[in-house]
Amino acid sequence: MGKELLVTIKSVTPLQGTLTIPTYYAEIYPAIMMISDAGKLDRDEMLDVYK
After folding, report:
1. Contact 20, 44 (CB under 8 A)
2. What span, in angstroms and rounded, lies between the C-alpha atoms of 35 and 24?
3. CB 42 within 8 A of CB 50
4. Which one, of 31, 30, 1, lies nearest residue 17 by Cα?
5. CA distances from 42 to 6, 23, 25, 48 (A)
6. Any idea where the domains of the chain sit in the sequence?
7. Which pLDDT score, from 0 to 100, does residue 39 have?
8. What mean pLDDT, rounded, does the chain reach?
9. 17-40 pLDDT, tens per residue?
10. 10 Å Cβ neighbour count for 41?
């Protein structure tokens, strides 16, 4: 999978997340950004529809 780091961007409204650094396919997929919208989901972007 990769190495996971908990990160916090300090600002008026702090933003927290998990940075995953891939070890496999790192040259092909150097980064993926998942941004959630309003609604019921978890940190892995899993909606109830897909569980």
Report:
1. no
2. 23
3. no
4. 31
5. 16, 24, 25, 9
6. 2-50
7. 62
8. 73
9. 888 777 777 777 776 676 666 666
10. 16
Separation of CA 12 from chain center:
21
Long-range contacts of 20-29 (CB under 8 A, 24+ apart): 26/2
Quick check: 7 and 19 in contact, CB under 8 A? yes
Can you read off the two tokens belonging to residue 23?
A: 């070890």
Supply the pTM of this predicted model. 0.49
DSSP state of 28: T
CA 3 to chain centre: 12
Q: Alpha helices of 1-51 — where are they, by DSSP H?
A: none
- Give the chain's length: 51
Single-letter amino acid code for the residue at 13? T
